[in-house]
Amino acid sequence: MSSPNFYYLNLCDVVGAHRLTSELVRLDRLPEEKSLEGLLLLQDAWCDHDVAVYTPKYFKLGCKVRFVLQLVVSYLAIVGSTMF
User: Fold this and answer.
1) Rounded to a whole number, what is the largest CA-CA distance in the chain?
2) How far apart are CA 22 and CA 16, in angstroms?
3) Interior CA angle at 58 toward 56 and 62, to 5°?
């Protein structure tokens, strides 16, 4: 907590919160133009994000289908074993 990168504020002190926020978030630190390397990194990050969002949906659907099939097979096994 004694690090110079650690900040705190009281939310009741609105003026102090605004001053600290303005000090920490400076828009003049942004580059004047966007480099090609930065744009390519951003495109790669979005591609990774799309894969990370699509893949769990696919596996979630597959798991639900397998679970329903497991329930049906279990039910059929129970019905079959009690009939004979």
Assistant:
1) 80
2) 10
3) 110
| Cα separations in angstroms, 67 against 39, 57, 59 | 43, 15, 12
Are 34 and 40 spatial neighbours (Cβ–Cβ below 8 Å)?
A: no
Q: Which residue has the tokens 């949906």?
A: 57
Give the position of tokens 């097979």.
73
- Can you give the pLDDT of all 84 residues of the chain as single tens digits? 788 888 888 889 999 999 988 888 876 666 677 788 888 999 999 999 999 888 888 899 999 999 999 999 999 999 999 987
> How far is 38 from 57, CA to CA, in rounded Å?
29
Q: Which residue's structure tokens are 């059929």?
A: 76
